[in-house]
Design brief:
By secondary structure, the chain is mainly beta. It is built from one helix and five strands. It has a five-stranded antiparallel β-sheet. Strand 2 and strand 3 form a beta hairpin. It is globular. The termini are far apart.
């Protein structure tokens, strides 16, 4: 997909310390601070290069659906997480 600086997107990010833990986060598409010819994701005061490590979605609904497809719903009876 093509993204432009200033867009708000949603990403599924895995916890680097627990690979079975992931969450949907909002991120901004920005010019990469070290390479102005590239775009990056900016979330929680950090820049991330676009890579296969991130599943990027145009809407929160798309991201939530992909999350549920991959990890299941957290609204399962008896779920304590």
């Amino acid at each position: 997909m093509n993204y432009q600086a200033g867009e708000i997107v949603y990403v599924i990010i895995r916890n680097p310390h627990a690979q079975d833990v992931a969450q949907v986060q909002q991120a901004a598409v920005v010019q990469h601070p070290e390479n102005p010819n590239e775009l990056a994701l900016f979330s929680h005061e950090n820049y991330y290069p676009f890579s296969e490590e991130f599943a990027v979605f145009k809407s929160e609904e798309e991201a939530e659906q992909a999350y549920e497809d991959a990890f299941g719903s957290t609204e399962i009876e008896g779920y304590n997480g």
